Amino acid sequence: MKNLLKLLSITLLASLLSACGYNDFQAKDEASKAAWSEVVNQYQRRADLIPNVVKTVERYAKHEKDTMEAVTKARSAATSFQITPEVLNNPESFKKFQQVQGELSSALSRLMAVSENYPNLKADAGFRDLQSQLEGTENRITVARNRYITTVQEYNTLARSFPTNLTAKMFGYPVKPSFTVENEKAISTAPAVNFDNK
Q1: How many structural domains are present in the chain?
Q2: What pLDDT is attached to residue 117?
């Protein structure tokens, strides 16, 4: 009889633990960390390409010193940002990470626009190769961010749903921040189109 009660107790405890979502939190937390690592890898790949791009542009566009300094400064800020596991759970840190990466993207866009003014630069095979690698990396960043957004959405759904939200509170699984669009209000407004030729 004692063995039967012990077996029933163990079975009940195991079913309660599986129903509470603890193991699901482990799996989804690890998935979000893995997706985050891929985001960081792609941002690092971009940062590694930038010095070569700047060096190539400098050979042809000596008068664009301000633009190249802006790219170098933005790269420095992005690479000096300490990426710790806490960034994933701290909305302020996550926003700061997103901000420095956004500033780097903006500076790079200005640099690529400058290249349009220099036909010799656009014709340089090395620059075209670097530009192609940079475009590919930007695409990889987008894919990695989308994967991360999906894993965080799944994790956050688990953290907010009943009864697993009780497990989240009990074991300290906070809702994770995700990537946002800086100018969300502006892009949700339809652009004004005017066909008048006045």
Answers
A1: 1
A2: 86
